[in-house]
Design goal:
The complex is a heterodimer of chains A (about 110) and B (about 150). Chain A has about 110 residues and is of the alpha/beta class. Chain A contains 3 helices and 5 strands. In chain B, strand 2 and strand 3 form a beta hairpin. Chain B contains 4 helices and 5 strands, in the order βααββααββ. In chain B, about 35% of the residues are buried. Chain B starts with a strand and ends in a 10-residue tail after the last strand. The chains are: A alpha/beta (about 110), B alpha+beta (about 150).
Chain lengths: ~110, ~150
């Protein structure tokens, strides 16, 4: 599991790579929170395009970052979720809080 | 074609074993020729069950997680058992968003297992441990010719 952080102006993009579970979520969380602290973005984008697996630990991860960025009056977008990942996100009702954008057109339903 | 097979394994409740167990169970299920979605569902549900053992059953300790899998009549059964603290109120534990953990847990573990598998059975005795039994039927996609 890896996180690539890219900062452009007030936009912080965290590109997640690999599998997200309870084991890996801890490290991802630390990396992203440190980058938020340092850059104070107004928009945080979590890019799931290169995530190959995610269980409900990923939901905790997104919700936690949502709380963090909301406290700073920022916004959170989730992009690139593949069908399996989107299925877990949908189950959690995450789309009521966060703007979710699917990976290409394959999972738009 | 009816195939029967089974395997058992025991792992320590270390979080690095979450990916190991879900990979082994999904590899075992491959003989049923599941779709990508079915394999994904199995992986996710197993990951949730194993995570529960690590995060809740053996909260402040390392214990053993026992995994038994079998395949019979195109049904995969995965039994995940621990000898941890047990669940006081199973009904409450299975409610979506209910969690006793404050460590950014979404409280969706059982909801995912229920939604991604065909059936789930939870048996638990406080102080003795919990057994979660997950079942999923994998449809035969290619009809075999009868001789």
């Amino acid at each position: 599991m890896a996180v690539d952080i890219v900062v452009k102006g007030e936009v912080l993009t965290a590109r997640l790579v690999g599998e997200i579970d309870h084991h890996t979520a801890y490290y991802i969380r630390k990396e992203i929170d440190a980058a938020i602290e340092l850059n104070m973005p107004s928009l945080l984008i979590l890019d799931f395009e290169r995530v190959t697996f995610m269980d409900s630990s990923g939901i905790g991860l997104v919700m936690g970052r949502y709380k963090n960025i909301s406290k700073r009056c920022g916004e959170l977008h989730v992009v690139g979720a593949k069908p399996q990942i989107y299925k877990v996100m949908k189950l959690s009702g995450l789309e009521r809080l966060v703007k979710l954008e699917m990976c290409s057109q394959e999972a738009k339903k | 074609m009816k195939s029967e097979n089974s395997f058992s394994m025991t792992v320590l409740s270390k979080s690095s074993n979450e990916s190991f167990v879900r990979s082994v169970v999904s590899a075992f299920a491959l003989s049923l020729d599941p779709t990508v979605e079915e394999i994904s569902d199995i992986k996710t549900a197993v990951s949730e069950a194993v995570t529960n053992c690590i995060v809740h059953a053996y909260k402040d300790t390392i214990g053993k997680i026992y995994i038994n899998c079998d395949i019979k009549d195109n049904v995969l059964t995965v039994k995940i058992r621990d000898r941890g603290i047990g669940i006081e109120n199973i009904e409450q534990a299975m409610e979506p968003l209910f969690t006793t953990s404050d460590d950014e847990r979404a409280g969706l573990g059982f909801a995912v297992m229920q939604s991604f598998m065909d059936s789930i059975r939870v048996r638990s005795v406080v102080g003795k441990g919990t057994t979660v039994t997950l079942k999923k039927h994998i449809s035969v996609r290619y009809a075999t010719k009868k001789q």
